[in-house]
Amino acid sequence: MKRDKVTFNEIAHYTGFSKTTISRYFNDPDSVSEKTREQLSAALKKLNYRENKLARVLAKGKTEFIGVIIPDLQMHYYARLLTEILAMSDLYGYKFLVFQGRGNLEAEERYIRELLSYSVEGLLMVSHTIPSASLASLDIPVITIEREDRHVSSVNADNYCGGRLAAKALADCGCEIMIHINADLKPVSPAYGRIIGFRNLCAELKLPEEEFLHSFGNKYEEIYPVMKTVFDTIRKKYKDRKKGIFVSNDTAANVLLNIILQTYRTLPDDWKIVGFDDSPISQEAVIPISSIRQDIPRIATEAVKMLADQIEEKKKGKHDTSLYHNIIPVEYIGRRTTQ
Amino acid sequence: MKRDKVTFNEIAHYTGFSKTTISRYFNDPDSVSEKTREQLSAALKKLNYRENKLARVLAKGKTEFIGVIIPDLQMHYYARLLTEILAMSDLYGYKFLVFQGRGNLEAEERYIRELLSYSVEGLLMVSHTIPSASLASLDIPVITIEREDRHVSSVNADNYCGGRLAAKALADCGCEIMIHINADLKPVSPAYGRIIGFRNLCAELKLPEEEFLHSFGNKYEEIYPVMKTVFDTIRKKYKDRKKGIFVSNDTAANVLLNIILQTYRTLPDDWKIVGFDDSPISQEAVIPISSIRQDIPRIATEAVKMLADQIEEKKKGKHDTSLYHNIIPVEYIGRRTTQ
DNA sequence: TTGTACGCGTTATCAA
DNA sequence: TTGATAACGCGTACAA
Q1: Which of A290, B68, B161, B292 is most buried, taking the most CB atoms under 10 A from its CB?
Q2: Nearest C-alpha of chain B: how many angstroms from A111?
């Protein structure tokens, strides 16, 4: 087992200093004399030294690893989220070990074991497969994003407010019947707030509301048949009334819009639509779709920040068991489907 | 510096066996007696032992880390690619350390140093900022994907063939004037092949061809003005001729389609469009867009496989300097814009 | 300011 | 089949 790498030992031999001095050169340069520093600096270049952070980790006990388990990068929301999370590496110096959950419980549990065996300092859990009770027992800091979070700290969008904003926008258009299309969410899911928010504002405004809650997938082919059925139902049932439709995500909203356009060749004035997420498709659609924007950069920032704080506290030995659920404001983006 | 973790030492004390035996229990169970195995197995559970792979790495010299530097996850192609790359972790046991390049040379060089200091065994380079000559001098295996690759092994889509397929599809529609809209690519970029392929088939078919090559960004707002100008030019210049337009990616193709639809309220028969990538938008558009599909799962699979092979060879001490450029076939997906 | 000696948790070598 | 001991590369009391 020949190891080609240059180590402190070689540098020590080469320069005549001890390993300790070299270590100090890296970790506390001021404790080393100017002269020594110059000599070492030169030697490092000459020998082409590369630091070995893994050895450092073993000695110090702290990696700068953060584990990330994310459901599916093909969904724009998660890709965007990971983008922003990874961008935080420059600020905190964290290295992100990323796994994709894909809803596979066994795999995700394996990933977590893997991550623990690499001494990740914290876990950013975006996947929703593993219950938060299990996550809470991991003995490393965990922050969840937009998922069930009863037993861990979390960051979520203000879904409730999002639901209200959507209802308000549709009501402002003069819609007479309010419709919400969403998956059959469980109340523990943060996104459930969208349903409640929408429902509540409709009630307050005394507007009739109907909810279509059954899960449609993420892909166009899966969504289409479901939306087609819903469309046919709505069309027949609310023939002469102004319909305000709040769809739980922009991809599905776009499918609905397409069905409407294919049917009428235009967007009739009695169909109003609001999507959710403000993903690119809402802008890229022939008729740009109004949507509720989540502040993904801020969600990511807050999540990493909270994780960093928890990691810091854990280092200090504090056993802070209080949970904090961070709610990030959302914003209504008005486009042509609510004009 | 209290370390709470259970180590081989504790297990040794607890069971009366030596650290060596315990190590063997993990790495070569057959070399340990049945009885011992059972005792250890029980002890491990009782003490709730978690393996420390970092220590293992230090002793064995091999991490299972692969570094990934990817340009921008917000572009669907890269998100999809990373999806498939991460999926390979189950097969190879690799852990992926992911950084986002964002075209920042200095940052990317820092990421590479970071990765090297964590002893990644290989690098998957998708970002195109750092020239392949620099990558070749890294002394770890490197595979690039869809970028300049003169000095390293790589995996690319068959861009040339893609260009030809697009031209053929448009010619088959009876187009009289062939138009290609693309960024102002450099010949070293694999995507340059699209231009050549398209140009060549047009020449072979003796069809007049015009190329609009100036970079338009990735975002809708950036693309729109550029496409609008191009549209106006084409419309005026080729008024009564059947136009076949090959756009370098689906996002831009969709923008063009939207402009056409906004102008004519329908897709006139003398406008035919083919995009590239077969990204979701090509399917999600009101009028589904024909496109050239890249086999992203295969690209990722081959890339990781090639990297694994190179890593294996390096372990055996082979200094294989031969370069291999793996070209993955593409496929024409006919949709409504070429009917 | 610099060096000695030991520890971090695992694997490898050699011996029993 | 098992164990003692020395690595792996670096950090850190403690001493000089």
Answers
A1: B292
A2: 9
